[in-house]
Amino acid sequence: SAGELLDHQTELKGQSLFEDLFVKEWNVNRHSQSKLSFYNQIKVDFGYEPYLDSKNTLNRKNLTRLRISAHDLNIEQGRYVNRCKGADPSIADRICRYCYPDKDIRSHLDLLEVLHPNFNPILETEQHVLTECPGYHHLRSNLTDPLKSQLLLCEFMPIFYMPDLADELGSYLKKCF
Question: Does this model's pTM top 0.90?
């Protein structure tokens, strides 16, 4: 009947409005959190991600961990090192463990920054591990050329839409985490 059709159309408009508001709120929230900087590079639209169709559960899990920063890299783990003591996270707790293996350098990082104002410590970020960290070079050297190209260009988002590259990246991450 015409009344049922009108009710259905009204319901659809309400649902669409709700979805639009949800997506707008999602966008505002994801851009307001520095923790999500890598996520924001690889996720621009709200919706289902094809990498979730991977049959390899461990690879899918590692890709998800990378995407949401639920991993053991210092950029994330360093956020919580001194939290139990009430202190703010330190940059020293987030620097790359392979680029600065010497704990003395870590303990004198503040002094280095004062003595060398242009000193910019290398943080152990997702991008650093994926593209340039010498500590992971031996793993990256075994990747296929198509994946290496995407990583070197810092074009991470397309990887998650190409099943073979996504699975290969998931295998790489298994060795990194």
Answer: no
DSSP labels, 27-66: HHHHHT-GGGHHHHHH--S-S--GGGG-S-HHHHHHHHHH
User: For the segment 109-158, what is each residue's pLDDT rounded down to a tens digit?
Assistant: 666 666 777 778 899 999 999 999 999 999 999 999 999 999 999 999 99
Specify the pLDDT at position 89: 66
Low-confidence ranges of the chain (pLDDT < 50): none
Residue 21: how many CA atoms within 13 Å on its side-chain side? 6
Strand (E) or helix (H) holding 130: helix 126-131
- Reduced to 3 states (helix: H, G, I; strand: E, B; else coil), residue 123 is strand
| Rounded Cα distance, 38 and 31, in Å | 11
Question: CA 55 to CA 58: how far, in whole Å?
Answer: 9
DSSP sequence for 53-107: G-S-HHHHHHHHHHHTT-SSSHHHHTTSTTGGGTPPPPGGGTB-TTT---HHHHH
pLDDT number for residue 120: 80
Decide if 39 contacts 30 (C-beta within 8 A).
Answer: yes
83 has which bridge partners? none
